[in-house]
Amino acid sequence: MAVAARIEEVRQEISELAKASRTGSELMQSMVKVLHNRMLKYNWVGFYLLEPGAEPPVLVLGAFEGAMTPHTRIPLNQGICGAAASSGRTVVVDDVSKDSRYLACSLETKSEIVVPIFVHGKIIGELDIDSHFHAAFTSEHQDLVQHCAKLVGQELETSAQ
Fold it and tell me: pLDDT by residue (tens digit) across 16-53?
């Protein structure tokens, strides 16, 4: 199956999950499983959410699929995850060995994408994906991951009311 077709198929599957999910937590748990299992180059998929009231602000590991990570709490001033959450922008790193912000989790990780999640216009967390392949995240992959983060934000907005 061509990569574009697989991405579109997974995008549709994720959209259906979002419609069927009753809570943000349920959606995130289902989403990491689908992304990890269906996308060949997505070797670690996880959500980090801002801990409410934490000073200084810290991202806390939530639902994930892949190997255990030593980074279960990440301050906003550290790592690629901290950079994405602080800037409010998607960060794509084609070669983590060349990015000084990278917090080493696995020797196998070669590239990473981190997409912020917004609820009512405020960053509440992010979707983080690592790959064992260099430059694994093309613009089509970025669109898919941003779609996923947007769906989670929408679900959390609805369930938070």
Answer: 999 999 999 999 999 999 999 999 999 999 999 999 99
Hey, what are 95's tokens?
Answer: 């070669």
How far, in Å, CA of 12 to CA of 26, rounded? 17
Strand, helix or coil for residue 142 = helix
What's the pTM value of the predicted model, to 2 decimals?
0.94
Q: How confident is the model at residue 161 (pLDDT cuts 50, 70, 90)?
A: very low
Cα gap 66→42, rounded to integer Å: 9
pLDDT at 46: 97
- Report how far apart the first and last C-alpha atoms of the chain are (Å, whole number): 41
Residue 31: in which H helix or E strand, if any?
A: helix 24-38
- Residue 5 has a CB neighbour count (10 Å cut-off) of 9
Angle, nearest 10°, between helix axes 139-159 and 24-38?
160
The Cα–Cα gap between 104 and 116 comes to 20
Place of tokens 């639902």: 63
In angstroms, the CA 8 to CA 84 distance is: 25
Would you call 21 exposed, middle or buried from its count of C-beta atoms within 10 A (0-12, 13-18, 19+)?
buried
